[in-house]
Amino acid sequence: MALTSLRRILFTLAVLLCAVPSALAQTGRTADIEKASRTIVETRAAINEGAIETPSAYEDRLRELRLKSRDRLSAIENELEGVRAQIDILGPAPGEAEPPESDLVSEQRSKLEAEQARLNGERTRVLANIYESGELLAQLSGAQVEALYKRLTKRGPTPLAPQQWALAWSSAKEVAGRIGAYFSDWGARRGEGRSFERSIALIFAALAFSLILFGPADRWILNTFSAALEKREPSASRRIVAAALKMAARTAPGVIGGVIIIETLRAQGVLTPEGEAVARAFWIGVLSCLIVSGFTAGFFALSSPKWRIAPIDAERGRAVSQIAMAIIIIFSLKILLKAIGTAAHADPALIRLVKSFAAIAIGACMILLCRGRLWRVENAGKGDGDWRILRRLSQALGAAIIAAALVGYAPLADFAATRVVFLALIIGLAWLLRAMLVEFALRARARFSSGVLDAGGTESDNYRFWSRLIINTILALMILPAVLVLFGVPAATVSDIAVQGMFGFSIGGVRIPPLAKLFSAVIVFIVVMGATKLTQSAVQRGPLAHSRADIGLQNSLITLLGYAGLVIALVTSVSALGFDLGNLALIAGALSVGIGFGLQSIVNNFVSGLILLFERPIKVGDWIVTPSGEGMVKKISVRSTEIETFDRASIIVPNSELISSTVTNWTHKDKIGRIRVPVGVSYGSNPEKVQEILLKCAREHPLVVAYPEPFVVWNDFGSSSLDFEVRAFLNDISKGLQTRTELRFAIFKAFHEEGVEIPFPQQDLYIKSMPGGEGAKLSVGTPAPEQPETVSNPEK
């Protein structure tokens, strides 16, 4: 007791020595927390008063505040864990009946509890700052989106007005002059003579190399990959891969060539910041055209009908490709002209006119592209109605874009037309990627599950559904940020949402686990289960395939491997989520009693299934007789066992019944079994001869084993016959019905050849008196009733 008190005193002194620098640091942190709170109050007041002119500056300040608050929160939580550990070391406070603790320990306990309360208060204030800063950022983002849509819905002059044309023409001449002056200034900067000529030569060399690159790169990709692929029979996956290769063959040279040209222009001093924006817009336009060209070439496969993805003919496919290319060319020219006008400080009338006519042209192309005759398919299915509605909605949108541009809503028309093109590009690329991932997942399933037992169609359908659901979900999460940015949500806000989703957030005091941990847990689970499937397949094709183990033992081992892999996958995925397995075990123990009452039968069947797999009283392929029915064991699962009767019906028997009830297993240790064939002969027959004939028939049958030897039993003196029985053993008792039938044929034939009579059942009737004389005796023969089988039928 004295030693314990001494330890507590020394520990208290050490804590006091360490507390001095900590107190100084906490004073500065408290001031920072109060400063952050004041900043939040000031920002909220400015938002409410509408006094914010530059929202981006306020957003940067709030994001920095939130980042620092998160750092403070982490430090506070670490200190809280330390204080709690110190309180735990001191132990619980003495109760009323216990002796009081020393004054020094009591004082230290009070200080630690006060420190814990102070840290909890700081933690609450920091959490409030984080929450309020996020709320203010959301308000600022909403205000920016609202301001954007107000600008878009502001009506301006119509593009048909002559004044607009005059202003645009005047501005276009000024822009042309500024472009000429731009290159003149560059020439003046480069100087005369060899330096200027060298720059021009390098620029033309880069342009020539980029253009020439399209031919060899395109041919190399197509000849190396696409040609080899198209030699095979087309399938859904190969069509998609071929389309992707064609798009890559068109796009890759543009990416490489664009990098070469831009870097050459930058190296030669051609690109100023304004000129670089124009060059980037031109590059984006070229890449967009190449992507659409490659996509349509692979999607419609005009020269190879069997590799065509779209269910339309070549003529309509060519028309759709041309309209799609027209849309993307108009879109690219608009981006380029807008970038030039912005860099050259063009009059707003010129930029408005460019936006208006680009939107009108794109809207007209949308109407042409969605015509029904271009997409009409013979024997269309149920999905054609949805496709028809989508086409009509697209045509209505195209008409609305044209109308908005004509009446003066140029920004709105340009915004809608631009978003339609970007959405089409994103959805097209996402569809291509989705199709490739789905086919890859299905191919992997077919490859890895080829050697695993009991791979049924239902499991394949489930795998197909879940793999598509996972791929669709991941792609949707990848596309969603781009869609939000397209429709006006600030990129910084989208980034904040993504960060909160990846690193967790709180709703009403409930901490939502970060998506990063959820994804990592799912990935860990999938990887472990995939490794389990690979292990099952390897064991099935390797050691088990070259062993003498029967199919039942193989199935038990494969199933146990699957259960072990599932347990490991669950444990590792739960650990990846950040849960303490020790706490999880305590929770499971606390809930086990309540769960046991509700899930008693399920747990009973599960444990019984494990007993069946380990003890193996029955196994797959066994012929068993249970109170529920008789048949062959087809599958032993977690909850139940499937028995297929000889009438091809399936009986689902709970595993607990097979453990608690009596089960007859005809093939438990081996398939050797005995059959019995009863035979009756007349009283005038020679019993030794009958025995000889019966043994000869049994020994000559190919399915009857020589050891144990067949034998004949003289059962009884029957009322009409001498009753014998042939008993013989078979290597495979499942052939019992066949063997008994063949033995009966052989016995009947041998008796006929040897003159042994098989009598009818006879019965003597004595009549004491008759109307015409003395009592008479009548011998009446009746047909023998069919004898019931005493051995169950093992065949299907």
TrEMBL record:
Protein topology in the membrane: Multi-pass membrane protein
GO molecular function: mechanosensitive monoatomic ion channel activity
Residue span of region Disordered: 776-796
Sequence intervals crossing the membrane: 200-222, 282-302, 323-344, 350-369, 389-410, 416-437, 469-495, 515-535, 556-579, 585-614
Domain of life: Bacteria
InterPro entries assigned: LSM_dom_sf, MS_channel_C, MscS-like_channel, MscS_beta-dom_sf, MscS_channel_2nd, MscS_channel_C_sf, MscS_channel_TM-2
Domain Mechanosensitive ion channel MscS C-terminal as annotated: residue spans: 675-758
Main localization, broad class: membrane
Localization annotation: Cell membrane
Domain (Mechanosensitive ion channel MscS): residue spans on this chain: 602-668
Entry keyword Transmembrane: yes
Coiled coil: none
One GO CC term, this protein: plasma membrane
Residues in the signal sequence: 1-25
Record keywords, A-Z: Cell membrane, Membrane, Signal, Transmembrane, Transmembrane helix
Family: Belongs to the MscS (TC 1.A.23) family.
The protein's name: DUF3772 domain-containing protein
Organism: Hyphococcus luteus
